Amino acid sequence: MFKNILVAVDGSDNACQAVGVAAYLARALCSDLYIITAFDPVPAYVGEVAYQMAIENQREEAGKVLQEALKVAGKLPGKLESEVQEGRPADAILRTAKTHRIDLIVMGARGLGTLSGILLGSQSMKVLHHAECPVLVI
Predict the structure, then answer these.
(1) 4-123+131-137 belongs to CATH 3.40.50.620
(2) How many Cα neighbours within 13 Å face the side chain of 30?
(3) Backbone angles phi, psi at 30, to 5 degrees
(4) Where are the domains of the chain?
(5) pLDDT of 34-61, one tens digit each?
């Protein structure tokens, strides 16, 4: 049914729960699991040296988020891949879903955004509206 599952993480509690659910489904269905995290692009106007430092810092932090997600996912019967992407999270999720022919996207209802009081985050809402596959929001 769901052979390729994608879960997006940002270090939030909701994202951690989403990884747990996605890993459970991947085990139950013997599916492949793709875990991604994305960071917002750094504006070019900050200058070359500051730009490179900012990119390195964001990649390092994103790598830490992925490592935590991989710990939560644990061992799986299928393939487990992870990736850090630069770009708006919803765009990265939708692009990855298309590239890897994802059958199910799992994501947290709200991430670490500044508007944490709203019911469903803007990135989750964008994915729900534009995804070509089912989306499970945790």
Answers:
(1) yes
(2) 0
(3) 55, 45
(4) 4-123+131-137
(5) 999 998 888 878 788 888 888 899 999 9
